[in-house]
Amino acid sequence: MTDSHTSSGRQASQQRYEALSPINQPQVHIRFAGDFEGNAVTWDARLHTLRHEYEQSLLQQTPAPETLRQYIHIHAAQGKLLPITVALNVPLFDEPTILKTLIMIHNYKRLRFGRHEFGQPVSFSG
Q1: Among the four 8, 28, 32, 42, which has the fewest Cβ within 10 Å?
Q2: d(CA 92, CA 82)
């Protein structure tokens, strides 16, 4: 599924994305234009809820972590695409949540390669 979305009332460059999977899910795949380290890039983003991360660890029969923290993980470039994984403590990724996530990525000035955790730890095991 491929859809292109924009939201009126905000800067279009920060709001335009291409949905590569259905939205309104605990995991979505989107692409959008942005900047990284002073260069124009196309972000290839996998957005996950923390609950989805927890449930995936249970399915993989690995010890589930006691707590999880929100994170942004920027992976090595793949051609013209810059893969990024974002895990947030939200129920699902609907359009408003996706748009807020894009704004967060666009406005985050210290993005670097690797995994960057933030926020309070969240527990799903109890």
Answers
A1: 8
A2: 23
Task: Fill in the amino acid letter for 8.
Answer: S
Q: What is the DSSP letter of 78?
A: B
What are the tens digits of pLDDT across the range 2-15? 444 443 333 434 47
- The string of pLDDT tens digits covering residues 30-59 is 999 999 998 899 999 999 999 999 998 888
> What backbone phi and psi angles, to 5 degrees, belong to 72?
-125, 130
Q: How many residues does the chain have?
A: 126
Total-model pTM: 0.84
Per the CB < 8 A criterion, the answer to whether 14 and 30 are in contact is no
Whole-number Å distance between alpha carbons of 125 and 41? 38
Maximum distance among all Cα pairs of the chain, rounded to whole angstroms: 45
CA distances from 112 to 58, 62, 116 (A): 29, 28, 8
